[in-house]
Design goal:
Blueprint: E1 10-12, H1 20-25, E2 30-33, H2 48-60, E3 63-67, H3 72-79, E4 85-87, H4 96-105, E5 112-116, H5 119-129, E6 132-136, H6 145-166
Parallel strand pairs: 1-6, 2-3, 2-5, 3-4, 5-6
Length: 167
């Protein structure tokens, strides 16, 4: 089907409900995260929930990297409390910086998982880079106008994805 390239490997309610311990047992060692609307509302600093999540992930043994289309001041501000590696201004869905994130973490496509909230940037970029991925529902409905337009198209793709999952 024409939408297959945009289908996530998994689709869950939130980055905070993923069973990271089970994924570690399955061999994943590096986690790449989008920030805005994946971990916090757009433009927000790391909240207590995000700080606890990254503390837990480090305790499990993961290497983590933030991958954002935002400029460095935004990414650096979010990262102040969680203190993980990051790459900014990445131009997702370009694969170049997904690969850079894996280099930074010392992982490869088999041991890396990407978590994000957008199909046409996050998921498609991860798929093109050969990385397993999990799509999460956006945390907050307030988004930049260009993202709002993409969400309409995402609904169409998700309709076919969910229809295939049922069938």
């Amino acid at each position: 089907m024409m939408f297959d390239m945009f289908f996530p490997d998994r689709y869950v309610a939130s980055a905070y409900v993923i069973d990271y311990e089970k994924l570690y047992e399955q061999g994943f060692r590096g986690l790449i995260f989008d920030i805005d609307n994946t971990l916090v509302p757009h433009g927000a600093p790391a909240d207590e929930r995000a700080v606890k999540l990254f503390s837990r992930l480090k305790g499990i043994g993961y290497r983590c990297c933030l991958l954002s289309n935002n400029q460095e001041p935004r990414v650096k501000m979010f990262n102040e409390k969680i203190r993980v590696d990051y790459v900014y201004n990445v131009h997702k869905p370009s694969t170049k910086n997904y690969k850079k994130a894996m280099e930074i973490m010392g992982t490869d496509t088999d041991s890396t998982l990407f978590v994000g909230d957008q199909l046409f940037t996050d998921v498609w970029g991860a798929k093109r880079a050969g990385i397993s991925n999990i799509l999460v529902k956006p945390i907050h409905p307030k988004e930049e106008i260009q993202i709002v337009f993409k969400r309409y198209l995402e609904r169409v793709v998700l309709h076919f994805y969910l229809k295939r999952k049922k069938g």
